[in-house]
């Protein structure tokens, strides 16, 4: 219909009536969206109507031009040549026009037309230097003349800025656009500030220096009451930081960390730690900032961050004394911060004598008076305070053990503290307590060498391992997200979460060192199901033939094969011990070709094989007997003849037999020989039914579905086969 009517709509676009033109333009938009191939038909008419004076026609035609540019590259090139001049004229007219009450909104003439034209200019100027140069002047005029004290004016300015940042604009024009965004940051409206922050993040890829001029205003937005503005401003500050401004900006962020909301501290802490690690050429400055973060928000510091801090302290021998003294003082004031406690306890255990004897004092330090007992008190307090956290308590016990070697006079007191955990319900703490107590009490001769300082940790290997882990996290994040549109900058919102741990191999199915019993036979390495079920699916050389009396008839009917009679007690090879998959002895029952789904050398029963009848149900009132027959050449079909015998002294009337099967089995039920069951077993009623297995040979699917076939007598019991 769109193809048939397109010529008529195109003709109406050239009508003299403005309302008809407007309606035709709107209809053309729908046609182009439905059938993009028709875009070229409307290029000429759309370019011709750009000269129209009526605003209703103009706004419709401008939108039509935008749709044409999206639908066809040919239309885009055509409109670049024939429409740019008209668009500049429209924008100049509405910007400089006098008061027009029919188009005026808050003192601005037709802001809707403004915005539509600016968006079309953005589409035409993107990637085209000539077109961008032609519209530079009018964009500068709109940016300087539009008032920003009204919402309509702000909307026009925002579209103007976005157009400037998208086209090949001059550097001066971009600076003007960024300055407009800087004014937006001072606006009281949260929405305006938020879109300004988003646009400034995009501008960072274009003109970083121009954005840096508004650094103070952006930093104030980090302290905003609105959480969305805080997070977006924090991301922008992170992008703004470089070697020249890292120290003042980090100081501002750390100072705000003390008064920030609890909900915001996690994001703020992660960003500060990332900044400090990224620009950590000065180790002393790095340590100072990390100690402040641990003191103010230690509960929000990730494990890998304080691990890296310990590695750095281990490698900076000249700063170990400064570190342990700083951490000791921080521990006294901020003992509730978990990560701070862990780092401080580790350092006190390793370098406790440095805090007591003021070893390796720096010029910026003041001497501290700490006794050996004070150091033990600090660790003991942490041990009692963190009674729930196993990691912190374990680190405290290790630190106490090391202090018993560093400070021999406190050894007896430390032993009393350690012994208190001998009856701890946590096995890790109980074991450490017993072993540490034994070291203190019985192994004095080796204690000093056993409890020496840890060797210097390999910083390079740790950083490589951490970088590899981070790279894996980033790869997972990228694969889970969609591609970023052109012209925009993808910024992660918040802290990247670590990937979920892989599912553990609880049954150790992939282990290469599975112990094999001497009597076990070898099974296929990838066939774990047979091991788990205790089934031996290896080929059998048993000759085919009629089923024996001990054969399960139902299994034969399903082409499963036969179970040989197993003599003797069951072997232990049929049981699975934790963490071990054992193989099965030859005595394990063999299952052959479940529904012909697995290969077997056992031949199937031939077409003339007779299957014994079975009594499916018998009570004092009723006896039901089934006999079976396989259809020649159709192993998936089984015919059953059912015989019903009435054992009561009264005849049963209105006899009806029903059967239900799973969806993958097809059932054909023939009529019964009679609707009356004679009394006292004097005759029987017979009925035939045929079942066809549509998934014949699909062993695993049947096993997983676990279907059960049930048969029922009307008003009587259910029979499960």
From TrEMBL:
Pfam short name (any one): Adaptin_N
- Does Transport count among this protein's keywords? yes
Query: Is Transport given among the entry's keywords?
Result: yes
Q: Which domain of life is it from?
A: Eukaryota
Sorted alphabetically, the keyword list is: Cytoplasmic vesicle, Golgi apparatus, Membrane, Protein transport, Transport
In terms of InterPro entries, this protein maps to: Adaptor_Complx_Large_Subunit, AP1_complex_gsu, ARM-like, ARM-type_fold, Clathrin/coatomer_adapt-like_N, Clathrin_a/b/g-adaptin_app_Ig, Clathrin_app_Ig-like_sf, GAE_dom
SUPFAM superfamilies given in the database record = ARM repeat, Clathrin adaptor appendage domain
**Which GO BP terms, alphabetically?**
intracellular protein transport; vesicle-mediated transport
Cellular compartments per GO CC: AP-1 adaptor complex
| Compartments where located | Cytoplasmic vesicle membrane; Golgi apparatus
Q: The GAE domain covers which part of the protein?
A: 609-721
**Protein family membership:** Belongs to the adaptor complexes large subunit family.
**What PANTHER family does the record point to?**
ADAPTIN, ALPHA/GAMMA/EPSILON
What is the official name of this protein in its record?
A: AP-1 complex subunit gamma
Per the UniProt record, the lineage of the source organism begins with:
Eukaryota, Viridiplantae, Streptophyta, Embryophyta, Tracheophyta
Q: What gene is this protein translated from?
A: LOC100842707
């Amino acid at each position: 219909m769109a193809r048939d009517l397109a010529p008529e709509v195109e003709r109406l676009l050239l009508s003299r009536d403005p309302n008809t033109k407007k309606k035709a333009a709107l209809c053309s938009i729908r046609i182009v969206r439905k059938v993009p191939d028709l875009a070229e038909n409307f290029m000429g008419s759309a370019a011709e109507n750009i000269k129209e004076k009526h605003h209703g026609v103009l706004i419709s035609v401008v939108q039509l031009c935008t749709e044409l540019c999206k639908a066809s590259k040919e239309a885009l090139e055509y409109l670049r040549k024939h429409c740019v001049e008209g668009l500049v004229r429209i924008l100049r007219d509405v910007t400089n026009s006098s008061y027009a009450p029919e188009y005026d909104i808050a003192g601005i003439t037709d802001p809707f037309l403004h915005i539509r034209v600016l968006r079309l200019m953005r589409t035409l100027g993107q990637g085209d230097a000539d077109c961008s140069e032609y519209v530079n002047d009018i964009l500068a005029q709109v940016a300087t003349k539009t008032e920003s004290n009204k919402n309509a004016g702000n909307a026009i300015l925002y579209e103007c800025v976005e157009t400037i940042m998208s086209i090949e604009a001059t550097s001066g024009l971009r600076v003007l656009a960024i300055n407009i965004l800087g004014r937006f940051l001072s606006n009281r409206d949260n929405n305006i500030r938020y879109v300004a922050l988003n646009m400034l993040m995009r501008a960072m890829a274009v003109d970083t220096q121009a954005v840096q001029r508004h650094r103070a205003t952006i930093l104030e937005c980090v302290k905003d009451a609105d959480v969305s503005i805080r997070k977006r401003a924090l991301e922008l500050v992170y992008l703004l930081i470089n070697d020249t401004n890292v120290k003042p900006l980090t100081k501002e962020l750390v100072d705000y960390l003390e008064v920030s909301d609890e909900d915001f501290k996690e994001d703020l802490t992660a960003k500060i730690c990332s900044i400090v690690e990224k620009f950590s050429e000065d180790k002393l400055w790095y340590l100072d900032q990390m100690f402040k973060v641990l003191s103010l928000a230690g509960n929000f510091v990730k494990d890998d961050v304080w691990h890296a801090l310990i590695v750095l302290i281990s490698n900076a021998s000249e700063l170990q004394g400064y570190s342990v003294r700083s951490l000791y003082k921080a521990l006294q004031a901020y003992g509730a911060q978990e990560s701070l406690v862990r780092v401080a306890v580790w350092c006190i255990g390793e370098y406790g004598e440095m805090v007591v004897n003021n070893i390796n004092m720096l010029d910026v330090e003041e001497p501290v008076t700490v006794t050996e007992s004070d150091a033990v008190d600090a660790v003991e307090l942490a041990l009692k305070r963190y009674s729930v956290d196993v990691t912190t308590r374990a680190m405290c016990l290790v630190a106490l053990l090391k202090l018993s070697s560093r400070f021999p006079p406190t050894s007896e007191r430390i032993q009393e503290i350690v012994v208190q955990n001998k009856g701890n319900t946590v096995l890790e703490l109980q074991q450490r307590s017993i072993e540490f107590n034994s070291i203190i009490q019985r192994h004095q001769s080796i204690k000093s060498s056993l409890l020496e300082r840890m060797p210097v940790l390999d910083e390079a290997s740790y950083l490589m391992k951490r970088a590899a882990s981070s790279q894996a996290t980033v790869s997972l994040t990228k694969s889970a997200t969609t591609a970023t549109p052109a012209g925009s900058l993808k910024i992660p919102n918040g802290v990247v979460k670590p990937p979920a741990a892989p599912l553990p191999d609880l049954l150790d199915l992939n282990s290469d060192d599975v112990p094999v019993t001497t009597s076990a036979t070898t099974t296929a390495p990838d066939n774990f199901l047979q091991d788990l079920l205790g089934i031996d699916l290896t080929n059998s050389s048993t000759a085919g033939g009629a089923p024996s009396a001990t054969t399960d008839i139902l299994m034969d009917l399903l082409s499963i094969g036969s179970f040989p009679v197993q003599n003797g007690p069951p072997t232990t090879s049929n049981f699975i011990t934790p963490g071990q998959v054992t193989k099965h002895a030859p005595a394990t029952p063999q299952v052959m070709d479940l529904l012909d789904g697995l290969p077997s050398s056992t031949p199937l029963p031939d077409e003339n094989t007779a299957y014994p009848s079975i009594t499916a149900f018998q009570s004092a009132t009723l006896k039901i007997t089934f006999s079976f027959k396989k259809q020649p050449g159709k192993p998936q079909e089984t015919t059953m003849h059912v015989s019903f015998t009435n054992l009561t002294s009264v005849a049963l009337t209105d006899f009806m037999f029903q059967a239900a099967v799973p969806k993958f089995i097809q059932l054909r039920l023939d009529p019964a020989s009679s609707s009356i069951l004679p009394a006292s077993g004097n005759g029987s009623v017979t009925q035939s039914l045929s079942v066809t297995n549509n998934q014949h040979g699909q062993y695993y699917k049947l096993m997983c579905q676990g279907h059960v076939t049930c048969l029922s007598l009307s008003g009587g019991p259910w029979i499960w086969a």
